[in-house]
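step: validate -> pass
step: tokenize input -> pass
step: predict -> running
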Amino acid sequence: MESANQELVPANGTLEVIPTGVGITLDPQRAIAEANKRVEFYRQIKSISLKMTNENDWVLEGGKPYLQGSGCEKLKPIWGIEIKDARMEPSLKEGFDIFRQNGEVAFECMVTGKSKVTGEESVFIGGRSSQDGFFSNQKNLDIVDVYKAAYTNAEVQAVMRLLGMRNLTPEDLESAGINVGKVSGVAFKGEMKEKAWTEATAEKAKKIGQWLIEMSDGDRELAAGELEKMTTFTGKDGRQVAGKRSIRELSAKQVEILYGKAQRSYEDFLRSREEA
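step: predict -> pass
step: emit ->
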């Protein structure tokens, strides 16, 4: 048994027992040093993982990138990730028949995931519903597809969390050489999102961003405010609908409409600068 005159210090993700003078204390400097090492460790994991994937391994949901099953299969062997003990069941405990009321089908999946490289192990939960954007537009939905998708979602949750890669942005993908303009998108009911951006749409969106920033003298916050003004509109009920502050939140159709408006504003801006 360790004596009371010892110190607990993180080392390689574990606690190392080191003798000290009196009592049990933590060395702040060594703890911070170890924490910084782990931050850099996970930063490298993120960088390598993204570079191992391509446009086909991601999907945009509401403008945010999510890893697909194909990307999962690429990352698991690199980081020694094992997925086991999958438990699948309908999301409502009352039973399958009751759950299918209103034509909806959904499953919840729980798995145990572990990475031999990071040493992390935990239980992760995923799920899919026939009302998700992935399936809502399908006329002949196969319940087996929802079942499989629930497992894949749980697996993706495990991989992303074990690698510390939650809440990624389109910019994260672009920094790894992934063309976000080629990443598929998912349309959701009640949203203005339509089909995914094409490469041409992405180029127009990039141009709009450049124009807004130049017209705002390089102030990105001011440019975001200008974008919000340009995309604010009045709904059918007479209420004003707030615009978007990020180009990435626009649908392909919105980009097309905004492009002409932004181009005219930019041309007016150039003329006024020449006249000044």
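step: describe -> The helical segments are 28-51, 69-78, 96-99, 143-162, 170-175, 199-215, 220-231, 252-275.
step: cleanup -> pass
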